[in-house]
Amino acid sequence: MYNVIFLCLICLVSLAHEESFVRFFQWLHRNGCRNVPLKPAVFPGTGRGMMATKALKHEELMLVIPQRLLITMDAIMDSYIAPYIERADPRLTPTQALAVFLMCEKYRREKSFWRPYIDILPEEYSCPTFFTEDDFRLLPNSLRGKAKAKKYECHKEYKELAPFFKMLADLFPDQEDAFNFKDFKWAWSAIKTRALDVPIGRESCRHLRDAEDTPTPTMFPLVDSINHAAQAKIRHRYNEKSRCLESRTETVYRRHAEVMNSYGRADNDNLLLEFGFVVPGNPEDTV
Predict the structure, then answer these.
(1) In this predicted model, what pLDDT tens digit does every residue of 204-243 receive, in sequence order?
(2) Which of 101, 157, 175, 258 has its CA 20 to 30 Å from the CA of residue 111?
(3) What angle do CA 76, 81, 83 make, to 5 degrees?
(4) How far apart are CA 238 and CA 235, in angstroms?
(5) In the record, which residues are listed under signal peptide (predicted)?
(6) In sequence order, which residues have a C-beta less than 8 Å from that of residue 62 and are 6 or more positions away?
(7) What digits encode the pLDDT tens for the residues 133-161?
(8) pTM attached to this predicted model
(9) CATH class assigned to 71-219
(10) Domain residue spans in the chain?
């Protein structure tokens, strides 16, 4: 029997009327992502997520997202920052390239094709890169060092990009304090908590380092707003012919239930380190 997930209507708060989400769904529709059976809502226990606007069946084709809506390495290397990336020394990693591109698109404001998407991304994240010293002190000793290492990694990557940021200074002459650490931390955390590794655009990675040995992160608007549940599953497939990402749910949902997806089997330590949350009663936790 297929797993059925449902949620009492009184427990959720719809966000579909908020201006940023109205613009976001209009942007999706204009660019070919239509008949979306999802709406944003706030759920108890998981926070902001996606609600089914109709009953969803097992193996139902839930989303068809055209490639032009995705932020892929192809999109980055076809953009205005491609010449800078090609001249970078040292070369950027795929994650660095994506982080820089997100920062640039944020600075471009209304000129950015992806502005409706960027406007719905959280300003802050609950992952270790945003932890304060008080937060670290609350962690058990076995986890504190690993969490601090995550924050250190973000600082290290930012410092490594200092020469590259100087190359980009002429792109935003009127942007005060462009390419500051706060903006990089935002972009880095968005990637680490939301991006998926799907083999789209790998051929554009020849100017990047470690591209063959590390994941190629891609930002998937809408898909990345779906929260984690270990028992849920959404199967993603890139259709080369239609140049669309197709998502099918392998879980059955009633109307107004929260649609969820498994981020992989992970105990709470790893979920906190990678995504910034824990799951009460996580079956992957061991004593």
Answers:
(1) 677 788 656 666 899 999 999 999 998 899 999 989 999 9
(2) 157
(3) 110
(4) 10
(5) 1-18
(6) 37, 38, 56, 234, 247, 248, 249, 259
(7) 999 999 999 999 999 999 999 999 999 99
(8) 0.91
(9) alpha beta
(10) 1-69+223-278, 71-219
| Domain 1-69+223-278: which CATH number of 2.60.40.1120, 1.10.720.60, 2.170.270.10, 3.20.20.140 | 2.170.270.10
Distance of alpha carbon 100 from the chain centroid: 15
At residue 245, what is the residue type?
Answer: L
Q: Which strands make up the sheet holding 244-249, listed edge to edge? A: 60-66, 244-249, 234-239
Quickly tell me which residue has 């809502």 as its tokens.
41
**Distance between CA 283 and CA 230 in Å, rounded?**
9
